[in-house]
Write a structure and sequence with these properties.
The structure is a homodimer. The first copy, chain A, is α+β, with helices and mostly antiparallel strands and about 300 residues long. In chain A, strands 1, 2, 3, 4, 5, 6, 7, 8, 9 and 10 form a ten-stranded mixed sheet that branches. In chain A, a hairpin with an 8-residue loop joins strand 8 and strand 9. In chain A, helix 1 crosses helix 2 and helix 7 runs antiparallel to helix 8. The longest helix of chain A has 21 residues. At the A-B interface, strand 5, strand 6 and helix 6 of A face strand 5, strand 6 and helix 6 of B. Strand 6 of chain A pairs antiparallel with strand 6 of chain B.
Amino acid sequence: MREGFVGNRINALYGIVNGTCNYILTRMKLEGADFDAVLAEAQKLGYAETPPDLDIDGWDSQHKIGILASLAHGFWVQPEKIHVEGIRHISAMDIKFAGELGYTIKLLGIVKRIADLGTNRKSQIVNHKCRVQVSVYPTLIPNSHVLASVNHVFNAVFVRGDVVGDTLFYGRGAGKDATASAVLSDLADAALDLKFGTPSRVPPFVPHECKGAVAPIAEVVSQYFVRLNVVDKPGTLAKIAAIFGQSKIGISSVIQPEGHEGASVPLIFMLHYAPNGAVTKALVKIGRLPVIKGQPVMIRVENFE
Amino acid sequence: MREGFVGNRINALYGIVNGTCNYILTRMKLEGADFDAVLAEAQKLGYAETPPDLDIDGWDSQHKIGILASLAHGFWVQPEKIHVEGIRHISAMDIKFAGELGYTIKLLGIVKRIADLGTNRKSQIVNHKCRVQVSVYPTLIPNSHVLASVNHVFNAVFVRGDVVGDTLFYGRGAGKDATASAVLSDLADAALDLKFGTPSRVPPFVPHECKGAVAPIAEVVSQYFVRLNVVDKPGTLAKIAAIFGQSKIGISSVIQPEGHEGASVPLIFMLHYAPNGAVTKALVKIGRLPVIKGQPVMIRVENFE
């Protein structure tokens, strides 16, 4: 980013930047296994630490995406301004339903320039001229996207520049050899900068009007996958749909998977672009309905549009 | 490669480095179309030049892979030492049969360090201590490999370092904007080198014992996909298998696809690791058999082992 993207404005950056999370999500997908079982095995194998919080709750990704955001936009992003969600709440069922819809779940770090209101309906935020979204959360991404093929402990950063277009940088995200190689290259870089007096070879960013403005997650507009556990009786769907409607949240599809028996069944909603704040509030209301069992699960969807 | 792989020996490098060829092969695969039809349309759309030889016969890839080989191994590779085959002879049938076997055909530039005889049966060459393969040819690669997902005008370079492991660099391989972005970054790099007097910031390679030794293609060991057009009568397979056997070339599988009618039928062989020279000679002999119609088609297979 410092040397190959001179003159580019970085419109979006998506990173799979934590090897432990990607290893767990990959195995959950390949084996249909549950989070706890895969985490326990990953800890036995030394791929996850004990306690595993730093990795699986997204804090390691937060640190890395903060650095990438700063490189992309030229201002230091305070960690507390980065909205972080980990992968603890992702279930085998979410991965299975996402798969049936053509999506893979990855923990993504996202740095996205948010366009002016009105110019791009799909990545707008409400009432602000220009800001940057900086966040970490599990995301449904289309199976056809190159990031969906980044598996196990591999990491990748997908960068979209306004001139260069879409690019991807891929390599191992864990392991002592890969880490040693990166450290060695950084040391050589620093030593040469000291020797030749070139502390800042290339301006690492194009100055722009978003400087310093990180959008609060509530105002960021996303698409959503929502999984509810509902009592299977007449009128349930109408009650839920009414709350989404009152909140001005559009439903793009509803899936009630077949083959589930018992008093409660899963019910999946795919939601249109809507502000995170509105969706969170609507889900609190929906969660209070007597027909809803347990907590609603909400995972954002990224179609890279 | 100059800055991120300090201290690495580049064991292998595989590049999809020509946007025109990748566009044609992608459309042939997606549409089941023939080479000539897709080329004609690519020329209409401006994705291929007239005459298209520089791209589709592999010469543009030769130039690029020569530069990458030099960066990886620290000696200038003469273009005439780079074995080049283009994609003109690839048929819709080859792409279809490769697909049924789980492979995608890509034009690959390959730079591979060839290990000592005996240490690695799979990438040996005969009778030499250490050399580098530098070549360009259409290759069957497994669908599961990340390079198989590089489609249309996108390019990618897959680099395997002995310390860093596997890495991939991906972006647009055609179009004025992506080209402008790359040129701008190169100009900035050159200007800063001039300004700060750092003409050679980092040694771009690890010196090693292969210096200057490019292996002739005849001595390079590969796996192969061979498609023959044979007269469907008893004894045909025995005659062909006898020639492979006399040449000490192992057959890993034989596929006679069903549903082909007429006097001649396609017959596919997947061949074990063998020197290119031996396979070329055996195919000349096989091509002279009266039961063979037309030229044998040979496409190398790369399993990235």
